[in-house]
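Budget justification note: compute hours in this period were largely spent on complex prediction jobs such as the one shown. Inputs:
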Amino acid sequence: MSNCRAQALKTQLSEAEAKAMLVKAGIPVLPYRVVRDAEKAVEAAEKMGYPVVLKVHSPDVVHKTDVGGVRLNLRDAGEVRAAFYSVLETVRQKCPGVDIEEVIVSPFLTGGVEVITGVTRDPQFGPVLMFGLGGVFVEVLKDVSFRVLPIGPPDAMDMIRSVKGYPVIAGTRGRGPLDLESLRSMLCAVSRMVETHPEIEELDMNPVFLFGTGLMVVDARMLVSGARPGSRDQ
Amino acid sequence: MTTKKHFLDHFFYPESIALIGASANPAKAGYQVLSNLTTLGYPGRIYPVNPAERVIENVQCYGSVAELPESPELAIIAVQAKNVVPVVHQLAERGGTRGLVVISAGFAETQKPENAALQEELVRVAGAAGMRVFGPNCTGVINTANNLDTTIEPIVRRVPGRIGAFSQSGAVGGALLLMLEDQPEPVGFSKWAHVGNMSDVNCLDVLEYYGYDEATEVILLYLEGLDDGRRFMTLARDITRRKPVVVLKVGRNEYGSRAAFSHTGAMAGVDLIYDAAFQQCGVMRVDHLEEWIDTAKVLALQPVPAGNRICILTEAGGPGTMAMDELGRNPAVRLAHISDEGVDYLQQVLPSMAMVCKPDGYIDITAAAMEEHHVLSLKRVLAEPGVDGVVFITVPPTFLSPGSVAREVIPVIKNSPKPVAVCFLAGRWVREARRMLEREGIPTFETPDRAVRAMIRLVERCQYLERSRSGVDGHE
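Corresponding output:
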């Protein structure tokens, strides 16, 4: 009985744990630091440079924005300090009984185009990769493409091109093309990561900011089979 | 017994067949199947089994499996569900039988546990005796090479051809046969199969078999779902490099019901993943029966073009514009370029009101065009180096016989290494002309847009072959 439960067990990684896996896979991730007090938050912000973002950091909080766990565009130490306390207080109120101790600090990015990519497992085809443009493209138009993993570079480019919003990132009037090459490498890196980590059940990288040069994973969530890596149960 | 390379050879090329549950009652499957076997000219030995009959349709009937003069290579079972397993036991005891087509229904498809158990028992007993099972709840196979037909599908002309069809629905499979027959000239097929409950032989086995089958050059699949998507992709990736696979997969609007931890999970409608998988392994997908048949016809009967530059040659503006609209909708193809010499030539030989290359690659020879204008312009555009394929549309007016246009263009199209998708408009007026063309192996299409779509399928095939030849189609 306990055996069966262990097999079915799935664990949501914290944002930092998920991002650490992406970094290891060679995927560019926005710098982040997990802190447990306001002064450490300020210290991290000073080091990264303002403005910054503060987000609640807990594997038990699935939708950070919905519970008031995100503060954007913080421009100085005072704002960071205030945001630190207000994030913890708001989320603790909205999620009673959940242990809320940590906040993640990152630079506040602007200027990129949001894309989304992720992995899920299909009962017939196994791990599949999704790619789409963020915001209205994915939310309203469901403009996404899928590929069965693993994929190579041509498949990756093919799935980028096959979304209807492709012209937005390929360059439109008044703006040059974005860095499709780094997007392609990122999709291939995700493919390799899923091959070497069969425990990855689901993954969302949402959003990923795509620039004229390079890209940055801003937020990531990951569900793995079994217990949390490094925990005693494993 | 000749050597059989694949276990499905026992189903498609049996030397002897027992029909257990043969009937003298024309309202029963056991009669229909026997009548198919005897009247279509299957050359092997046929053994009807029914303890209550002595002779059916002039064929001697046997009281039981034990009384048969030899072990049948293939046994078709059309008895009540509860009697199927005992029959399988008798065949197992006798030994030597290699395949079972179980037409009887009332097994796992009823979703009743006791019936599902009966099906498991059937497969277990058969498997232990070296017999593979088609079905139950299936109609089995047709092979036009030896006039074998184990089915109760409506009788159509069994014209040998290059299309191998396989269906997860007996009804869709039957409709396909009727629609292939109902083309201006019946479109031939090599093999046909319906595997019913897939208790043992499943659609991937048939796909693999058609992949090897030399008589089959185009594979049609009707799919409702797959159990092993990964194996399908591996098989299909291998086969599509040699022959096209065209899938009619239903369930477009079915969405995954998995709990959505991730955005990705929530977006992963089952069908989007099928789309991706088909795309990755070079399987062509169609949405409708007509499109399935058009695609099969063009792939079976026309050469694959060398590129995506399509010329539209039309005898009338309206239908030509319809074709242009359809062509413009698909970024995979573009209008061909006609050389300056080509334009000069066409202006010279065509009626003065002809619209040559307005725009480039689009030629309206107009209703003033007679047979020779059709022929000269078609010949010329096919000879153009910038043209990879031609969509040829004509709407013969009352003073021009569709049949004589067809007769004149047949040799041009037959001798062309480049594909031509032909549309004669419309209906009864051009039926005989289309028949003439199709009798010569030139596929014709009902409407201009359907002719264009068929041409686009050929271009897609060309692009897929190029991609897989250059070895850049992703992961190996």
